[in-house]
Q: What sequence folds into this?
């Protein structure tokens, strides 16, 4: 794809336009800043990209690196396919069927109740979308669903075999055991008399263009991969993997998510060498600052550090830790574990001998470091009772550097709870505890611990309750609490008398009220970070924004953002979706509405930059507009519109709607 950049003053770098953008800063919000989590992935042959939608509803595309695109997708997708005929991607979830055109997700009509659907595949030979349901096999021809077979295999394992030009499924049909079945558009027939009968539910089926064989991968009960060569099955030992997604691409069969969310492995022979490492483990907790590296650190199955733009998994053995706290007296991070002394971090976790006294395992404890009394504190959490049910406790455990000590009272003592907010307040010289989930429901009280006594603070009942996170704000000199509201997050600060609502802002990933969350301040930027365990959000003072505005005319042509436009983002750019051939892309610092006749409107003011692109045979072109990591670009807004020759248009051209790009942090 060729691109030429011109302005009134001649050829200039595409980047120069962004310097002319208008300063139209967008409202602050909680922006997602990390890479993809778990979810299905597909190869988009139309645009030569991987497309992933994770369980946070975030959409990512791989174009040499994972980049989040500014669209909201389904949060429950378990299957995803690409339709190259209609240049769309379809995702099937437990409660949703959605379609993605590269610029937005929208609902897609289902042939039956979505709960009755189990799998999707695209039949490239016949140009049809194929769906398995409890009400038979259905096909979508681009305009409507039609039932083509009264039965369908009971399975989620469905793919297309381009060698045999059949949609194939691995599952059961009627009273059969697990077999490989082929679909010819009319009926299902077995390809194999039998198949591997044992295996975990989360394995996946894909076609390997390297061997022209079908692969069953991701079995976490037998740790075996199976390969079908058209005549029989072969098995190969495999490493444990977690919920991978298989994608047949021109370079081979890729498995995304073998080792971590976003990791990419390629099948070579019978092995899966990793070619792109994932950023982090599946679930991270213990969000805190490693003072030695001056980076946010979190733990899960591994230890990861945040560099301001992505997580880095560290090659360090990680013990099972409940959370972490910062020992500000010694400038080190401590990992808190049950039945053990705190583990000290110095680039590796250093575990000490087991002390004489330890506390039992618990879920959702509140942990803090008290530098005045040089103590690590662990309050509450849920512990198993004799019926193996987890019940909140109000135990307070204190680590003095040698042993754990239990302090527990009844009168003048916080009620049992889990997932309460806790932080050391240097103004009060005490540890502050707020809210949490008690034995009978959500709590909304606030307490402080001075090393020997709990004192209840005002108000007796805050306007928030239940699961919260707390951090001390060193600039405002106040404890701050975050409360998830689903699509937004409320922040409260304690002014010494009351909890005062500081902000209620939208979040780009779900923050459900009942889910555990954590807060920390990001070194360098001073911005607040929030983790919901599966996604990392930053409270941005100036947020990114992408918006499609007004209407185009003539033959369909539209624009989309390559990635969320941020300062320092090399993948920022514009995608053009139109007809094959030349397309003129104009970019301006101001919008306009100039009628051109025939229902067409020029939607740009003075055109500061124009680029001649050549759309490929799919009508797709892309133009990079990387944004430097310079504060001067923060909040700048530009507008784009594209046009192509169109003989059927009254004015001889087709014009796209206007695309707004506003650069955020």
A:
């Amino acid at each position: 794809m060729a691109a030429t950049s011109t302005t009134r003053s001649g050829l200039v770098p595409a980047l120069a336009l962004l310097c002319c953008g208008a300063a139209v800063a967008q409202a602050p919000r909680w922006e997602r800043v990390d890479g993809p989590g778990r979810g299905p992935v597909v190869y988009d042959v139309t645009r030569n990209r991987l497309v992933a939608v994770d369980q946070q509803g975030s959409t990512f595309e791989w174009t040499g690196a994972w980049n989040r695109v500014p669209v909201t997708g389904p949060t429950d997708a378990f299957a995803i396919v690409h339709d190259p005929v209609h240049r769309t991607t379809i995702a099937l979830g437990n409660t949703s069927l959605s379609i993605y055109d590269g610029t937005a997700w929208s609902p897609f009509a289902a042939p039956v109740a979505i709960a009755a659907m189990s799998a999707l595949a695209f039949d490239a030979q016949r140009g049809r979308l194929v769906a398995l349901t409890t009400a038979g096999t259905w096909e979508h021809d681009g305009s409507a669903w039609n039932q083509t077979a009264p039965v369908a295999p009971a399975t989620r394992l469905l793919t297309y075999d381009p060698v045999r030009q059949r949609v194939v499924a691995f599952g059961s049909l009627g009273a059969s055991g697990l077999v490989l079945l082929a679909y010819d558009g009319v009926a299902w027939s077995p390809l194999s008399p039998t198949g591997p009968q044992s295996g975990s539910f989360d394995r996946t089926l894909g076609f390997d263009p390297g061997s022209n064989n079908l692969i069953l991968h991701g079995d976490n009960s037998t740790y075996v991969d199976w390969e079908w060569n058209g005549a029989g099955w072969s098995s190969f030992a495999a490493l444990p993997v977690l919920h991978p997604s298989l994608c047949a691409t021109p370079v081979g069969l890729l498995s995304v998510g073998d080792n971590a969310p976003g990791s990419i492995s390629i099948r070579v022979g019978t092995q899966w060498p990793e070619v792109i490492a994932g950023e982090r483990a599946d679930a991270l907790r213990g969000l805190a600052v490693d003072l030695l590296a001056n980076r946010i650190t979190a733990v899960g199955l591994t230890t990861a550090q945040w560099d301001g733009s992505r997580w880095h998994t560290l090659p360090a053995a990680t013990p099972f830790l409940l959370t972490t706290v910062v020992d500000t007296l010694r400038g080190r991070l401590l990992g808190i574990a049950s039945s053990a002394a705190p583990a000290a971090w110095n680039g590796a976790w250093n575990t000490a001998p087991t002390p004489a006294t330890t506390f039992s395992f618990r879920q959702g404890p509140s942990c803090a470091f008290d530098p005045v009394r040089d103590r690590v504190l662990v309050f509450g959490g849920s512990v198993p009772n004799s019926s193996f049910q987890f019940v909140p406790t109000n135990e307070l455990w204190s680590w003095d550097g040698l042993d754990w000590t239990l302090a527990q009272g009844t009168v003048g003592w916080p009620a049992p709870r889990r997932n309460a907010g806790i932080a050391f307040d240097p103004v009060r010289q005490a540890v502050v505890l707020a809210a949490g989930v008690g034995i009978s429901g959500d709590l909304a009280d606030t307490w402080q611990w001075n090393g020997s006594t709990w004192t209840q603070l005002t108000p007796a009942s805050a306007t928030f309750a239940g699961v919260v996170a707390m951090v001390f704000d060193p600039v405002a000199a106040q404890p701050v609490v975050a409360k998830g509201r689903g699509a937004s997050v409320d922040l409260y600060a304690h002014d010494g008398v009351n909890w005062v609502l500081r902000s209620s802002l939208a979040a780009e990933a779900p923050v459900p009220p009942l889910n555990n969350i954590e807060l920390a301040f990001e070194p360098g930027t001073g911005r607040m970070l929030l983790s919901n365990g599966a996604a990392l959000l930053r409270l941005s003072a100036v947020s990114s924004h992408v918006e499609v505005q007004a209407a185009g005319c003539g033959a369909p042509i539209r624009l989309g953002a390559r990635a969320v436009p941020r300062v320092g983002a090399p993948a920022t750019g514009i995608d053009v979706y139109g007809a094959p051939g030349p397309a003129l892309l104009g970019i301006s610092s101001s919008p306009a509405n100039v009628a051109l006749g025939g229902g067409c409107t020029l939607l740009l003011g003075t055109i500061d930059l124009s680029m001649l692109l050549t759309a490929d045979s799919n009508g797709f072109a892309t133009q990079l507009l990387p944004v430097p990591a310079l504060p001067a670009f923060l909040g700048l807004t530009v507008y784009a519109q594209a046009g192509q020759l169109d003989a059927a248009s009254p004015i001889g051209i087709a014009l796209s709607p206007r695309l707004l790009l506003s650069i955020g942090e």
